[in-house]
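Everyone, study these two lines:
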Amino acid sequence: MKIHEIVAALMLLGMVGILVFGIGFANNTEADVVGANNISSEEKQTIQIKVVNGYYEPREVRVKEGTYVRLELDPNTFVGCMIDFNIWGLGKRMRVSQTNNAIEFVADKPGVYDMSCNMGMGYGKFIVEAADGSSTTIENEEVIARPSCGCGICNH
């Protein structure tokens, strides 16, 4: 291979990487925050999340169905691949930075959801308890799986 072919291949690979990993991490959409002013304070919940030793703290977040949730992510602890935060199965994702570190939405789908980076690292659970009080344990909830980090060691 000639040098210009190698450079072109690397540039193409870089552009594909940006497309695959860079799209979808914009700020919250209007749909995520619509109606926030019409929700009573009892139905709003703000939760601060940080990364400690490769895990999210708190490791388990519980909210009631219908709760308006604001997750405030500590940008000083979200480093490396951890800056890409996901709640798998709920379609909530963002790239954490000093200026983009909160995600807001209504938790309207009961279940147990994994929180992780794009590689499946940084482990935590986001649990939406049914409004009627049924199925409040992990064993009784629908568990939404996330991708594996692929290391073969951590079972993530």
About this structure: Residues 27-144 form a domain with the Immunoglobulin-like fold (CATH 2.60.40.420). The chain has a mean pLDDT of 75. The helical segments are 3-22, 30-33.
